TrEMBL record:
Protein name (Swiss-Prot/TrEMBL): Pyrimidine operon attenuation protein / uracil phosphoribosyltransferase
This protein's UniProt keywords: Glycosyltransferase, Transferase
MF terms (GO), sorted A to Z: glycosyltransferase activity
CDD domains with a match to the protein in the record: PRTases_typeI
Pfam families: Pribosyltran
Keyword Transferase listed: yes
Amino acid sequence: MTTPPSAATTGSLLLDAEALYAELLRGVRTLCEAHTRLVGIASGGVWLAQRLQADLGLDGSVGVLSSALHRDDFAQRGMASSAQTQLAFDVNGADILVLDDVLHTGRTVRAVLNELYDYGRPARVRLAVLVERNGRELPIQADFAAAKVALSPTQSLALARTDSGSFHFHVQEV
Ligand SMILES: O=c1cc[nH]c(=O)[nH]1
């Protein structure tokens, strides 16, 4: 794991997601092989996967994984999202790099892994994220995180797009 040389890791409450993206691109280049398939977790990981796919010059469309059907709180919340999984390739034997904006408890990653395995048995699955924050509740970790941020349990990270099209993370009290 690496830490970007930007204000994003200095405790600033405003993280420059574009700087983090540049760092993520650098890390993903080291993880990707020609046959690697990029798959974004809906919704925050999909724009990442699409930008990476374009910036890496990879052919085809990225995959999308929805956690909706496998959430462990499905019984209480029902369908928390209308996003649908789209995997236009054979998952069996595939080398898959899952992308998300923030890794927090690990529950969403657990849910999308269950979803992924409904489609087949990949050869390998790895995870890259823009931001890894504290608060893991499952034995899940990222293979690459552009930044690590320590927040209190009452805080969350929200991604916002500015009028100029750049992205920022804001720390919010929940
Ligand atoms: O399964 C899940 C996924 C995200 N958040 C949860 O609380 N549960």
